[in-house]
Amino acid sequence: MTRPPASSTPTTPAPAGSVPAGRGAYVLGVDSGGSGLRVALGRTGLSGPLPTTPLLTTVCAEPVRTGPGGIDAGHLLAQLLPAARELLERAAASASDDAPAGEVAAGEVAALAIGAAGMATLGERLRAELPGALADALGVRRLALAADAVTAYAGAVGQRPGAVVAGGTGMIALGTDLTEWHRADGWGHLLGDSGGGAWIGRAGLDAAMRAHDGRRGGSPALLDRLRAVFGPAEALPGLLYPRSDRPAVLASFAPEVAACAGADPVAAGILRAAAGHIAEAAAAVCPTTGHPTADGTDSEGSELRAVGEVALTGGLFRMGEPLIAPLREELAHLLPGARVTTATGDPLTGALRIAHALAAGDLRLPRHPTMLFVPREHETGQRVGTAEQDEPRTG
């Protein structure tokens, strides 16, 4: 048995009869986030496991615009298409003239996967406009449009059951048993992101202000760091509240909390509380061997056991042991048997892995209308009937 979904997230299985792409075809992985657009070019494997190390990469420094209609598909294409053509031209220029017989012509894009921040809630225009546009411009045979949490999962865990916790300014956990996606948190700094960088920074600043006022729970050590970073404590509201990037400002204080944790019990307590929140989110999404009950056992009274690994990814975990040590303790309590790992691949790696899997006809991650959208092949310019996409189903 596996854990029921943390929220209703309908999925669809892989299409029947998927046919691998020709040997030697190119694949493209794309990561679109707040710092810009990254594009990686890979090639389908000639034999053995599919490679995930890109042949070439490039970066478009301008973030894709988001407006009233969601993520701007035209703006994404205006950056992606020149970048993709540049990578294909560079790859063709460096290709050997004596390529093995049977390889496809240089420049053919067998599959493309795009991971984008906001895809699940703001990606309607991308799902409507990109399949046809990319088929026309690049001849893409297979396409996947994924939430950035999904590409983070693929980069960290691959196509195995498990969970990933992506921590930075915010915090989100995503897990799957390869049947459904389960999500916890990622609701922003006002409604959630509990245990993330902004949460830790705000808790640290709260403790500093308590020390400034003489209230219980204050930390003189954190007050000293507040003054060193921001200036006089009484001036902090005027510096913080008018900012449109308040979550990032709050998160900038999180490393100060970690630096104080070794000698300051208040700072250490903040990180332990953050670890508890992160572990709870991971436990909510990680597949287990039973159905959980309130006392932490399954419905038959046996101890729950985690299925797969829990991978940690993102800048939050660069804090190191002050956060990681209590997090491992909390995970051991909530998810017995979980193997806690540090992600070996980032979301760009994950997008490239999804593209490789699509090209090979071996995408095992659950399809989903907003989390991992794979249109019918005829919607990307291919023959109708070569793939079948069932109606979404829930857990």
In short:
This protein is of the alpha/beta class. It is 36% helix and 17% strand.
Key phrases:
alpha/beta; six-stranded mixed beta sheet; five-stranded mixed beta sheet; 12 helices; about 35% helix
Structure, explained:
This protein has 395 residues and is α/β, with parallel strands linked by helices. It is built from 12 helices and 13 strands. The chain has a 6-stranded mixed β-sheet with strand order 3-2-1-6-7-13. A 5-stranded mixed β-sheet has the order 10-9-8-11-12, with helices on both faces. A two-stranded antiparallel sheet has the order 4-5. Helix 1 packs parallel to helix 3, helix 5 (197-213) crosses helix 9 and helix 5 (197-213) runs antiparallel to helix 10 (265-285). The two termini are 12 Å apart. The model is unreliable at 1-9, 11-17, 46-50, 101-105 and 378-395 (pLDDT under 50).
Number of strands: 13
Are there runs of 5+ residues with pLDDT below 50, and where?
Answer: 1-9, 11-17, 46-50, 101-105, 378-395
Indicate the proportion of strand residues: 15-25%
Radius of gyration: 23 Å
- The main sheet orders its strands as 3-2-1-6-7-13
Q: Helices, strands, pairings?
A:
Layout: E1 26-33, E2 36-43, E3 56-60, E4 66-67, E5 70-71, H1 73-94, E6 109-116, H2 119-122, H3 124-138, E7 142-147, H4 148-156, E8 162-167, E9 171-176, E10 181-185, H5 197-213, H6 220-230, H7 236-240, H8 246-251, H9 254-260, H10 265-285, E11 309-313, H11 321-334, E12 339-342, H12 347-359, E13 372-373
Parallel strand pairs: 1-6, 6-7, 8-11, 11-12
Antiparallel strand pairs: 1-2, 2-3, 4-5, 7-13, 8-9, 9-10
Helix pairs in contact: 1-3, 4-12, 5-6, 5-9, 5-10, 10-11
